[in-house]
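Our preliminary data section would be incomplete without showing what the modeling component actually yields. Below, a chain of 162 amino acids is followed by its predicted structure, encoded as tokens that our downstream tools consume directly.
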Amino acid sequence: MQTPINPKATSTATTQAKTTKPVLQRGSKGTAVVELQKLLGHWEIYTDTLDGIFDLPVETAVKAFQHRVFLKEDGIVGEVTWQALYSGAPVNMLVLQRGSLGQSVLTVQRVLQIAGFYGGNLDGNFGPKTEEAVRAFQKYSGLIADGIVGSRTWHALSKKPH
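Predicted structure:
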């Protein structure tokens, strides 16, 4: 049985993640890897042994978690990945609204399309159709339907398959 870890022990844990956590990658070993394995287990991504060895299954789990929270899927656990592991949510995401352009908008459009809220073009342009889809998703998710993709909307989007 895995030892539970409390990722909601927020301010201290997040501060520690920002300042004292080592960068981990395949080949890393030790107590920090056990902590990583516990956090990945908490988010139901890793079910293997808590052995402190960053091997291929751990790397695969890290990449899956990074995908879930819209981070670069490189399998390396640096500062931002540690922060996301403790919060269980995307971190440092742009606030998006009508007029926004780029890869982050494309990501939102793709997730909303997969979730059945968006039927427009996947073009990275936050126009009226994207705003309408964001509002519908926010309403469905119990959020304020303001059409702006902020931290709460990013968090809700991260819970959807993408």
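Residues 56-68 form the longest helix (13 residues). Helices lie at 10-19, 31-42, 56-68, 79-87, 103-114, 128-140, 151-158. Preliminary results of this kind motivate Aim 1 of the renewal.
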